[in-house]
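I have a small job for you when you get a moment. Would you make up a two-line entry for one protein for me to read? No commentary is needed, just the two lines. Write everything out right here, beneath this request.
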Amino acid sequence: MITNGFTYVAVLLFMAAVLVTLSTHATGGLQKFFKYVPAVVLCYLIAMLLCTLKVWDMAETKPAYSALKNNLTYAMIFAMLLRCDIRKVLKLGPKMLIGFFSATVTIIIGFIAAFLIMKGAIGSDAWMGLGALCGSWIGGSGNMVAVQAALNISEADMGYALVIDSIDYSLWVMFLLWAIQLAPKFNKWTKADTSKLDEVSSKLEEEAKSNTSRITFQSLILLIGSAFLASAVASNVGAALYDATGFSDKATWTVLFITAVSLIAAVTPLGKVPGSAEVSNLLLYSVIGLLASRASLLELGDAPAWILTGFIILAIHAVLMLVICRVLKLDLFTAGVASLANIGGTASAPVLAGSYSGSLVPVGILMALMGYVVGTPLAVLCANIMHALA
């Protein structure tokens, strides 16, 4: 049993490194496996398995976990949002933004309704786990972690959230990829006009091709140093804001503050420094491993009810999106990518966008980045609504 904090962290990081390496170089059947079960999900599940097998002493390793988890989370948010230049997002045009926020709102409605339907089976405290999942299904895994930090959600509830996030999400991605073939009939049914979409996507593709900056040691250490400093400053400012207002808690104020700082930094020269995606992914895997290392699989006895809850959320989201598409004359590309930009984030929205057309990949990326921006505050709001209805 591991009792040394540094060894505990080293094992988690090495496990993540092995999984990323395997997924990067996978071929054949293994490549297909990683397509449907991403390395980040395996990182969480394997860390949970190691915790269940008591590979490390929970009490002895707690100081290392407590010192790193929140601070790395704030640094991750900063690095993640550096890629989101709000000025570029606005170029998506009103129809794409309407599609994105329609998906966001219908997902939130789905969470609230599913909680009211299933709280007898999953428990009245399930609003916490669902709140974390809402962060992931509006933004991404980073938002889920940020919501966990903001609401102080237990690792057991996070385990349930991840089970839904992996199983229900994977089936939703497969369904949307299958639905591509229905696009002509769907667009005819909704009477959608795709001319503006084609124009915007071509401009975004030109911008993406013009960015040929190379990742260097200097760019990486600048980004890591900036992210860590932003995390340290945000922790102190968050505490000061909480002391001054007495509203909510320190973690929530810290997350909101670092989100605002990140968006400002994204439109400065720092936002153009190459490597922010790599740094944010490094921090994401570190935080995911730490979170999962405190959750035992023995605590997931009610997983089937949670999985059903996830399908109820998706069903409500799908029905409401069909109504909105019909009323607002949205095309299937806009609706599908908007849905996956929320639920899947940058990992899958570009894949779906590219399945329609290679020139549309930047649209999927920018919509997913928009999810990163709004995911945390809206998920915290959704969690508080569910809490009030518990």
DSSP finds 18 helices and no strands in the chain. The chain has a mean pLDDT of 83. The two ends are 39 Å apart (CA to CA).
